[in-house]
Amino acid sequence: MSFELSNWYEEVVKADTIISYKGILSKDDISDLLNQIEIKLELNNVNPKLVRKIYNVAVEILQNIYHHGESPGGGDGDFAAFILKEYEENSFGIISGNYANKTKIRLLKDRLEQINYLESAELRILYKIILNNQQFSEKGGGGLGMIDIAKKTGNKLIYNFYNLDSNHFFYTFSVAIS
Amino acid sequence: MDPIKIKGTRKTPDVSFDAGNGKIEIEGRSIPENSIEFYKPLVDWLDEYAKDPNANTSVDIKLEYFNTSSSKCILDVFKKLESIFKNDQSVIINWYYEEDDEDMLEAGEDYQSILKIPFKMIEMEE
């Protein structure tokens, strides 16, 4: 069965969702979502340390989409999805989805596999190497965001690529935060 | 040299750079989408300041959040300060973190291990 974006989104938001967003993601949308996260988590009396972790992860995920998300061209226009879930007390998860150009998939997959393969002490070393040696562009820092997410959550990054057409994939990403 | 004074926003920190007393302060949140745009004037200012720095430069970094794109820019700021320190001037970086914020402490330690410049880790009570 071919991948249906609307089915995927409906399935993802069905249970445990506390914040969900889909559509074009502007800088202001990012600010609003981050604001909502702080307000909702504080209202739910989530431990401030955990709020900080979730906020940090959300910043990196949203800005990754902002800088690297692609438009599939025509049709639905730019599309990004961001969902924050609370599975149980003190156990959260963020799921995101965006279009990615075929040419970037292999590099992205390679990066994600490398991050998942490394232990936390090794992730810290890799983070420092990239921070100190790599030129950054205005789009950010050579996968540093993903390393930071893995380092801060201590959890594996879960991802999938769904083939949409000859040039585009839909890239889904999720991570648990507790 | 004119000081820099920038009021913080939801995504950018309060900034105060004063050549007169050698006080450099960055405080708040640093999570802009384009960090280079925000930090470039600060790095340029330090370039100028390095030509004739105060005998004592004291740097206070009190960040609540910073994104990975800011992390490189903050390193660029520190590298300018390191060059002043290497010219036998007194420079200290005071890295503040909240008492249970191990990630922020770790980030400070990472900078400390990359740079040859005195750091002081300062725990703040919440």
Summarize this, please?
The complex is a heterodimer of chains A (178) and B (126). Chain A is built from six helices and five strands; from the N terminus they run H-E-H-H-E-E-H-H-H-E-E. By secondary structure, chain A is an alpha+beta fold.
List the helices and strands and how they pair.
The complex is a heterodimer of chains A (178) and B (126).
Chain A: H1 5-13, E1 17-23, H2 27-43, H3 48-68, E2 80-88, E3 91-101, H4 102-117, H5 120-133, H6 144-153, E4 158-163, E5 168-177
Antiparallel strand pairs in A: 1-2, 2-3, 3-5, 4-5
Helix pairs in contact in A: 2-3, 3-6, 5-6
Chain B: E1 4-6, E2 14-18, E3 23-30, H1 35-49, E4 56-66, H2 68-86, E5 90-98, H3 102-114, E6 119-124
Parallel strand pairs in B: 3-4, 4-5, 5-6
Antiparallel strand pairs in B: 1-2, 2-3
Helix pairs in contact in B: 1-2
Protein traits:
heterodimer; A: 178 residues; alpha+beta; 5-stranded antiparallel sheet; B: 126 residues; Transcription Regulator spoIIAA; globular
Polypeptide structure, described:
The complex is a heterodimer of chains A (178) and B (126). Chain A has one domain: Heat Shock Protein 90, CATH 3.30.565. Helix content of chain A is 49%, strand content 24%. Chain A contains 6 helices and 5 strands. In chain A, helix 2 packs antiparallel against helix 3, helix 3 runs antiparallel to helix 6 and helix 5 runs antiparallel to helix 6. Chain A is globular. In chain B, helix 1 packs parallel to helix 2. Chain B has a single domain, classed as Transcription Regulator spoIIAA (2-Layer Sandwich), CATH 3.30.750. In chain B, strand 5, helix 3 and strand 6 form a beta-alpha-beta unit. In chain B, 37% of the residues lie in helices and 33% in strands. Classes of the chains: A alpha+beta (178), B alpha/beta (126). At the A-B interface, helix 2, helix 3, helix 5 and helix 6 of A face helix 2 and helix 3 of B.
